[in-house]
Amino acid sequence: MIAAPGALRCADVGRSDGDMGPSNMPSFGAPTRIKNIVTIQGVRANQLVGYGLVIGLNGTGDSLRNSPFTDQSIQAMLDRMGVNIRRQNTRTRNSAAVIVTAELPPFVQTGATIDVTVSSLGDATSLLGGTLIMTPLNGPDQLVYGVAQGPVTVSGYQITGAAQTVTQNVPTSGRIPNGALIERESPGIFAAAEVIGLALRNPDFSTAIRVSDAINSYGLDRFGVQIANAGDLRSIAVKRPPSMSATRLMAEIGELIVEPDVPARVVVDERTGTIVIGRDVQISTVAVTHGNLTVTVTETPQVSQPLPFSEGQTVVTPETDISTYEQGGTLRIVRGTSLHVLVRGLNMMGLKPQGIIAVLQTIKTSGALQAELVVQ
Questions:
Q1: Which of 74, 140, 254, 375 would disulfide-bridge 35, Cβ 3.0–4.6 Å?
Q2: CA-based angle 308:310:314, to the nearest 5?
Q3: What are the angstrom distances between the C-alpha of 105 and each of 46, 123, 189, 343?
Q4: Residues with Cβ < 8 Å from 172, sequence gap 6 or more?
Q5: CB within 8 A of 19, min separation 6: which ones?
Q6: CA 81, 86, 91, 96 torsion: positive or negative?
Q7: In this structure, how many other beta carbons lie within 10 angstroms of the beta carbon of residue 330?
Q8: Angle CA 346–374–27, to nearest 5
Q9: How many CA atoms lie within 13 Å of 347's alpha carbon, on the beta-carbon side?
Q10: What are the transmembrane regions (predicted)?
């Protein structure tokens, strides 16, 4: 069965698009591994940032008059190399000041390499062909965790002519794959932790209890004791048995299967007309009508030409035609005891996405929508 354009669809794997009766109602459960719905507290990436210079540009770098910090950086770099140009008037356009950013992964070791992003800070038009010179990368504690250097890979370009400029993507930003060398390990005590904290990606009390119960069932089978305790809707504390390492414990816990609970929520994106309805959304019995009033204004100018040799003037007379059309609005009863019944009822009204959005917002205002309505 092919749905009409703009109709709501229920996406279920392994079912046909026939009517959903009591005998063939699909299972809404979505079991997943614990590792897919939780993160480990304290195990996270850290942001690094640095200031550096990109050299070797083909005349597309910063103009030193408009970017004085680039001129100062060039002078400071050459001073460290024994070259004094303090009193010289440099006019190079082959250098650009850049901000270098990177993400320090957890548990990374000294000597490893990570990717970095290079972004222009001045008025350079392109970083294509440039090379980043040695740039320290600092963390929030102002300590140096890595050093970046290497040729910049730019996916965009800019070609400028006398009367036209062609630009593809963003030529003033690029990346250096494996461009930063790690000089300091990120702090962490995961291996020696006696209690491991798990945080749910989508906080929910029911999901937290289900995760805790699954881990306790595993603990009883494996160690004879319960090892998990749900603290709130977001966090679960797991006590590590002395006979097992934290790494192996998390590897085995991550493979346990649970069914996360999903709150009753309707998400609406008015810009694109996208509507996502959760499985537990229900609508109390309401009567709904929806009609659209269209007003069309047509301007048809009429030109009046004077007779030959009459010394008259051409006159343009405006003529306006206004017509109105109101789409018929049939009063329908909509009730939603399940997701499929709700979707079928809304589709029967024959509304386009914008009309469905307006109806859902009005039903929420009336108090009949038993769910959270999120409008983006």
A1: 254
A2: 80
A3: 7, 32, 15, 43
A4: 119, 120, 124, 125, 126, 127
A5: none
A6: positive
A7: 12
A8: 55
A9: 15
A10: none
Give me the residues paired with residue 159 across strands: 166
Provide the token pair at 44.
Answer: 């996270």
Distances (CA, A) of 130 to 115, 123, 154, 172, 222: 16, 15, 9, 11, 57
Distance CA 18, CA 16 (A): 6
DSSP 44-83: --EEEEEEEEEE--SS-S--TTT-HHHHHHHHHHHHHTT-
Length of the chain: 376
How many whole angstroms from its chain centre is CA 178? 24
Q: Which two tokens stand for residue 114?
A: 């990570």
Domain boundary assignment for the chain: 46-182, 189-258, 265-375
Q: What pLDDT, in 10s, does the model give residues 311-344? A: 777 777 777 665 655 555 555 665 655 666 767 7
Architecture of the structural domain at 189-258: 2-Layer Sandwich (3.30)
Return all residues near 1 (Cβ < 8 A) that are at least 6 apart.
Answer: 17, 18
The amino acid occupying position 134 is M
State both tokens at 227: 């090892």
